[in-house]
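PT: before anyone asks, these are the final sequences, not the draft ones from last week. 735 residues across everything. Please model them as a single complex and drop the result in this thread when it's through.
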Amino acid sequence: MESPAEIVQHTAGGMIGASWLMIAFPLLGAAILLILGRMTNRWGHLLGVAMSLASFVVAVLTFLEIIGLPAEQRRQAVHLYEFIPGMVDMGLLIDPLSISFALLITGVGSLIHIYSIGYMSHDPERRRFFSYLNLFVAAMLLLVLADNYVGLFIGWEGVGLASYLLIGFWQFKPSAAVAAKKAFIVNRVGDFGLLVGMFIILATFHTLTFSELGKQIAEHPPSGGAVTAIGLLLLLGACGKSAQLPLQSWLLDAMEGPTPVSALIHAATMVTAGVYLVVRSGAFFFPPDSTQAIAVSVVGAATLLAGAIIGCAKDDIKKGLAGSTMSQIGYMMLGAGLGPAGYAFAIGHLITHGFFKADLFLGAGSVMHGMNDEVNMRKYGGLRKHMPITFATFFIGYLAIIGFPLLSGYFTKDGIIETAVHHQPILGWLAVLGAGITGFYMSRMVFMTFFGEKRWEKDAHPHESPAVMTWPLMILSIGALFLGGYLILSNRLYFFLSPAVGTAEATPEFDFASTAGLVTLALVAVGAGFAWVRYGRAEVPAVAPRGSFLTTFARRDLYGDALNESLFMRPGQWLTRFAVYFDNRGIDGLVNGLAAGIGGTSGRLRRIQTGFARSYALSILFGAALLAGALLLVGNI
Amino acid sequence: MTTHYLVLSGLLFAIGAMGVLIRRNAIVVFMCVELMLNACNLAFVAFARQNGNLEGQIIAFFVMVVAAAEVVVGLAIIVTIFRTRRSASVDDANLLKY
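LR: through. Structure below.
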């Protein structure tokens, strides 16, 4: 078992030295589009795509330079400028972990940018949309590339802001505005955890820089309450961004944004931030049997089941996919909680998920594009002949996500399941169960959308989307086909990542015939078969049947919103009501009472001013007499 | 000797003050004010004579000058008020109040 390699200060220039361009390009794009405003309406989307692609090119070149270095020198810190004097210098950490994320973010992000040209072509605000997309990519890149927690936090908040802007992009819809606010507020809860975790790190280690932390932890492996607290607080942060229980509620509502946003949030950015945080902070989740590490796995396992169950009951194609995102991120968290043994599979699943989930979401967007923005799957059906490319790519994404043998998802998800069964048997078998449910709900989605009878609205004329939308789909589906096998077989990703995240006791071996793997396949087959019986062969009712209480339970997102409402919203309302009452009656009462008292008294005193000069003269006389009397009484004059 | 002057001065002052307080006619009130001033003048002059220096007498002159100036301004006001309101009563000029 080896800890991560030491971080080297990068001195020579080269692509690594210029890696800040990766963040600068999309940031510049966002700035230009936002500052110049309507002037850029005609070419704004092209600039957005160009900036994203430029960032991708920088990422690829940096990646090539990294793999040219010997393994122990692959962690390079690039100093940029002094940020908070004496505490934090802003810099970038270019290592296998961050560059993997950067490639995913810029690569899949660029494809989503290209797709959006077509998807948003009828929207008058397309230019603003692209500026937010660029901002999103820039913030996410800062998050994964920063070499300290402060930079990470800035990116973290930037992602939150960009997601708020994008989810609420159609803010004229009240539901979108509310969803954006909800995402922002739920994320604040997680941000609070991250922030307090950072405070404790700073108090314990007196630094927030990854390289310094790494050195200190290597010299004196930390232990005790502080580390547990740090781990649990960072986990809270990760739960917020990655939509894990108990902070999952924003993700399903986030579907109010335009579909490419959902793809961006779910595949390339945002929700992966939590997994990144846990893996990057691996030292605080060590050893894998510590409280905080187990907490990560438990949260992951619980969420993967919850997400899968929610996915089963949704008729809205995007919400179904959102449930599946929760579930898949749950797998990643489960893997990330297992320590270095699980990191490679977690990150691998993150990357392949980035591809097939973007593929699925963009495919769903393509379907909606052809169906007048209808999202209810009960009004789809039989679309495979009308949208052949969308169907083919969606189907590949579907096979990948359910873990069809030899596709991307099979390798990475199975890897997580096997590792989990080995280290945390109970959670591992729950993950196996979750895979079976995945097989059911994803098959249900495919059967309801592309197979069976037409259940369209009268004015629906489904048509294949333009090439600018189908090409990204095809590229993504190639990733969904082969990427997993490439990364996992012969442990390519494991050895690539090991300088950044450390190695496990035993090098993981992908086993094609493990018990858990076979059971998983069997369960997935059962799930898919059940879905075929219910939704493929049988007629799908156009109106959702009432269903059992379990269906209702899943449709209502496992009562997550109801729970939040009764636990936090109502007491919060009581608190504000009390505060308003206290403010009105208590504080205002005091101030107003004082003012009224003084006003009343002066109103009485005012009556002395009668306007009769003679009465004033009388009071002057009395005053003079009084004064003279007093002087006489005192004597000496 | 001085005592008699002072008693006279006090009596004149008291008469003047009473007049200011109880008379309504502005002209009479004005004359009463003059009476009070001159009562003070009498006291000043009496003390000056008793002490054998001129300071009291000088102050008396100052008082006269001030009284003359006051008469000029005061009478002008009274005349103006009378012209506008056809009344010289101080009680009628009571608009400046709460």
